[in-house]
Amino acid sequence: MKLLVTGGAGYIGSVVTRLLLDAGHEVVILDDLRTGHAEALAPDATFAQVSLHDAATVLTPDSGFDGVLHFAGLISAGDSMTQPETYWDINMIGSLRLLDAARAAGVRRFVFSSTAAVYGNPAEIPIRESSLKSPTNTYGATKLAFDLALTSEAWGHGLAAVSLRYFNVAGAYLRPGVAIGERHDPETHLIPIALQVAAGKRDKLMLFGDDYPTPDGTCVRDYIHVEDLAQAHLLALDAAKPGEHRIYNLGNGSGFTNRQVVEVVAEVTGQPVPVEVAHRREGDPATLVASSDLAHAELGWTPTKPTLHDMVSDAWTFYREHTQ
Ligand SMILES: NC(=O)c1ccc[n+]([C@@H]2O[C@H](COP(=O)([O-])OP(=O)(O)OC[C@H]3O[C@@H](n4cnc5c(N)ncnc54)[C@H](O)[C@@H]3O)[C@@H](O)[C@H]2O)c1
Fold this sequence. Notes:
Elements lengths: L1 E5 L4 H12 L3 E5 L15 E3 L18 E4 L6 H6 L1 H21 L4 E7 L22 H20 L2 E7 L1 E3 L2 E3 L2 E3 L9 H9 L6 E4 L11 E6 H14 L5 E6 L4 E3 H12 L5 E4 L8 E2 L4 H7 L8 H15 L2
Parallel strand pairs: 1-2, 1-4, 2-3, 4-5, 5-6, 6-12, 7-11, 10-14, 11-15
Antiparallel strand pairs: 8-9, 11-13
Helix pairs in contact: 1-6, 3-4, 5-7, 5-9, 7-9
The structure holds nicotinamide-adenine-dinucleotide (NAD).
Enzyme class: isomerase
Protein name: UDP-glucose 4-epimerase
Keywords: Carbohydrate metabolism, Isomerase, NAD
């Protein structure tokens, strides 16, 4: 297939691009590099440095794209609470412009990076796709809004749409000559921050809240290896059916407290990871653990690197060799 990957210079989009190319697809990447990295771009893909709002300049009516995989967007729950207008503009309006362009270009398949943040403080654990959606931050609200837009697009125009709701993505893609890991700036994700502390680049790790109703009082999250996540996108692309919007949670179904993650980082790196406990952050749910039963049953998805140890170990290899 000829596929457009938005956000293909970012952490997850650049890994998925590699898998798509390996599977024999033709890939064009649309990314304005606002948070992505030119070095992460796959050399065998075509690159268009274009913003989501201008997607129609790439998705022209005669461009012949079969599908879009949409990763581009802003991803910080914290920033989304202080800059809501920017999050709505990029994650919602930008995504709608992309959808308009995809429709005009006759694109039949669309896979979207949604998030566990759409569920907010979950009413049940593990979280199912049918669980109540009640985001507690603007980031999650923008993602839920675009999920709903995709449902409408499937109803109204017969799009074959899939939303993949990722839980916490971790680890790295490591091959001879290629290493892709997390390099968000500013980094807000726990594992890369803990690795920076272990490497001596930060003095300490801030743990936001230790009075949650969890085993040690710190938040519980479900982690998924970026390679397992990437594989699910290829399965979703194949499983997409015209006129349907399918939604799948992607996680491992086991939760780790923030303190447990810090312990694994200390164990893998062999370095101390000092922590300081700070107040809870606004909008942070206590526990987010996925049920991915639907992805297993309908996509045939099986994670190959489900352990936190594997994820931290790959992330550490990437960190030591590529970000010092
Ligand atoms: N990383 C996670 O743990 C996680 C969890 C749940 C969902 N997601 C979702 O997955 C997607 C990818 O996340 P990531 O971690 O790879 O993020 P990332 O920041 O590494 O990549 C995002 C990419 O999108 C590009 N981009 C942003 N706004 C753009 C715009 N307006 N026009 C064109 N390009 C633009 C950036 O330059 C960057 O290359 C995001 O949509 C995110 O919400 C990520």
